[in-house]
Write a structure and sequence with these properties.
- It contains 14 helices and 4 strands.
- Helix 6 runs antiparallel to helix 7.
- 76% of the residues lie in helices and 2% in strands.
- The two termini are 40 Å apart.
Length: 335
């Protein structure tokens, strides 16, 4: 029996195939990291007895919450073509400052002041990068060293205990089976997705990274956008510092060491271009979860803890190679 193809059927199939290819190309970063995450889940579940337990997964979700929160802000920063290397040091400073202020005053005031410290640092970084015409890499690299020094100075290198009944539940409280930091991370992802994809500011962020001069000529002050995303990064890092201090019940000036590497790796794994102009909030969130799963899985396999940063560094190199090579090929195919 011969199948007769109507004249209109073939163009319809081509359009469907074209739309499918366009969807895959547009969301390739999210799709690829999702596949990797599923493979890792299956692998660690088969290799260990405790990985897929509810208690372990809930704990992993709490541990990765600070990374997820800062990865949301870092997605905005990197999409504009900038980078923030100071987030780890901000975590250390704000964690230590929170502990000091909470022990000598009102915990609510301490929380507010801690967030304001993050905002102030982010605004200084943003002002130097956007209005001072300095490279964000240089500005935040200098901030990384200086802020860590301040954290060590105000604590003399020692951890400060936190005994506040208001702050500790921020890490140890539970609702519907999940810890509070997990809910904060989920809220951060939802808010970041909305701002990034549904608001004018989100469109400006993408435009700054892809064609800043065109945006400037249309009347938008791109300096405000660049400064705004770095200020957002500072606030997110301060929130991560609060969550870290609350979970450890102490503020350590060494908190957040190499944290910037983890955050940037998560964002790049999720498909955000280091050259700017392309970002994915959902991809960054999945990238952060992937790193958390890798770290936890290696611990479950009883791999030496010193291998964790080595694995993270290798993953970052692979992610950058994929980011610069594979995504550029997909872009050429689409065009």
């Amino acid at each position: 029996m011969t199948t007769v193809t109507t004249p209109t059927a073939e163009p319809t199939r081509r359009r469907q195939a074209g739309s499918t290819s366009a969807f895959v190309a547009k969301h390739f970063g999210v799709i690829s990291i999702s596949v990797v995450l599923v493979v890792l889940f299956v692998f660690f579940s088969l290799q260990t007895d405790n990985f897929l337990t509810t208690a372990n997964l809930v704990n992993v979700a709490r541990q990765i919450a600070p990374t997820v929160v800062v990865a949301m802000a870092m997605t905005f920063v990197i999409t504009t073509g900038q980078i923030d290397l100071s987030v780890g040091s901000i975590v250390g400073l704000t964690a230590a400052a929170l502990a000091i202020w909470a022990s000598s005053g009102n915990p609510l005031v301490a929380l507010l002041l801690t967030l304001l410290v993050g905002l102030a640092i982010g605004m200084v970084n943003g002002a130097l990068a956007a209005y001072g015409m300095l490279q964000s890499f240089i500005v935040t690299l200098a901030a990384l060293t200086a802020i860590r020094g301040v954290a060590l100075l105000i604590t003399s290198g020692y951890s400060e205990p936190i005994n506040s009944d208001l702050i500790r539940p921020l890490a140890h409280g539970k609702m519907l089976g999940l810890y509070t930091p997990t809910w904060i991370a989920i809220a951060a992802v939802a808010l970041a997705w909305y701002v990034f994809s549904q608001t004018r500011f989100g469109r400006y962020v993408i435009a700054v990274g892809s064609n800043a001069e065109s945006l400037r000529r249309s009347g938008v002050d791109i300096r405000k956008v660049k400064m705004g995303v770095l200020a957002l990064s500072g606030v997110a890092a301060a929130l991560a510092g609060i969550l870290t201090a609350a979970r450890l019940s102490s503020g350590s000036p060494n908190s957040g060491t190499m944290f910037e590497l983890e955050v940037i790796t998560a964002v790049v794994l999720g498909g955000t271009s280091l050259m700017g102009g392309r970002g994915s909030v959902i991809g960054s969130a999945i990238g952060a979860v992937t790193l958390g799963v890798i770290n936890n899985g290696l611990v479950q396999l009883r791999v030496d803890v010193y291998w964790v940063p080595i694995v993270q560094g290798l993953i970052l190199v692979v992610a950058i190679l994929l980011n610069t090579k594979l995504f550029s090929r997909i872009a050429r195919v689409r065009t």
